Fold this protein.
Amino acid sequence: MNKKIMTGIKSTGIPHIGNILSVIIPIKKIIKEKKKKKFFILIADLHSITNYKNNIILKNNIYKTAAVLLSFLNIKKYKNIFIYRQSNIKQINELFWFLNCFYSFNRIKLSHVYKDYIKKKKKINIGMINYPILMAADILLYKINKIIIGKDQIQHIEITRKIAKIINKKIRKKLFIIPKYIIKYNNIIPGIDGKKMSKSNNNIINIFENKNILEKQIMNIKTNNESIYSMSYNKIKNTILFKIYKIIINNNKEELINIKEKIKNKKIGFFTIKKMLYKYILFFYSKQRKKFLFFINNKNIINKILNKKLNKLIKIAKKNIFIIKNKLGLNI
């Protein structure tokens, strides 16, 4: 039996550089390495409703998320990739209800999603509380073996594993596969203000923005009030700017050596480092930026790609939900 690997992106807008480095690039590499595996790439549009604005924004965000995924992943090249919208698989919601009935409210209150909203004193809806359970339904419905996630998603997978074990034990059958997670990128990527990069913090770097906005985002990266020329190298490498620079250039050793030498020899300032970072992003992601514009201007092509294997996905989902209902005693 082919192993199944999944990853997902919440459709709340254009995925930022943190999403790209921690999830999209790793899944691209794994697809190349493990051609015999099946890959499920989920656009989590149901999850995005927890912060609903209006129907136009929601629809545009789904297209933007899809365009980013398609700009990195050569879907046509691989037959073993399923890319789809969460809301198109009704059986996810059906399983979601079953899972809710086996997991206690006291346990879900321990999740960091719930605690974060309470801490920030934000208005919280039931969808926000149940966020990890819906994620569990995404995974367990398709009998996923491994999930590629960012470091901050570990707890959600642990909840998925826990629910699967609870139900397996309750019905005394191995109904659900206990999934494992893969973290290919260990860094928590700082935003331009030093906090964790996220759209909600409004501190992201969006490589698909127009040049003026992208440049502005980079020029707004927080730097020390102290002059770079009076700082030691050790102090400079711990600045937000240097950390972001190092993360974005990733494995480009030549670029990293170049910047280190210039800093140590006092030949470069914060302003110039930001300009270099801006130019690097434009150069390194030039192909993806062009593809993104192509897809976003041709939404019919996005629709065609997302619908291409939808019938097969629905067929699998129907088969699996029938088995689940049968094991639970709902088929009579």
